[in-house]
Specification:
By secondary structure, this protein is mainly α. The protein contains one helix and no strands.
Length: 103
């Protein structure tokens, strides 16, 4: 049994393969440059969001300070209300005690 002779198949020429690789590299470089541009845009958006969050934080701190002041005023007013109600209750009890001749 004789074997047929192996025929050598020539590979694609080296220049053709290099040209194909160069074309692929150009596409990759274009994609990378597009990604860099997108990353820069995202960086700018992040900076603007950071600025707005900082402004919001400052605004919230001012508002919380105002709320704390109003609570302080409310506690003072509530203390005066309690004293007033205590005096009214004492006067009413004194009046009832005289009416029922307890004192």
């Amino acid at each position: 049994m004789a074997l047929p002779a192996l025929t050598l198949e020539l590979e694609a020429p080296l220049e053709e393969r290099v040209a194909r690789l160069e074309a692929n590299v150009e596409h990759i470089q274009k994609d990378v440059s597009d990604m860099k541009i997108d990353i820069r845009r995202l960086g700018e958006k992040i900076d603007s969001v950071k600025d707005s969050v900082t402004a919001l934080t400052i605004n919230m701190e001012k508002q919380f300070a105002a709320v704390e002041k109003s609570f302080g005023a409310l506690h003072t007013a509530r203390a005066f209300d309690r004293v007033w109600w205590l005096l009214m209750s004492a006067a009413l009890l004194g009046l009832m005690a005289r009416a029922f001749k307890w004192i």
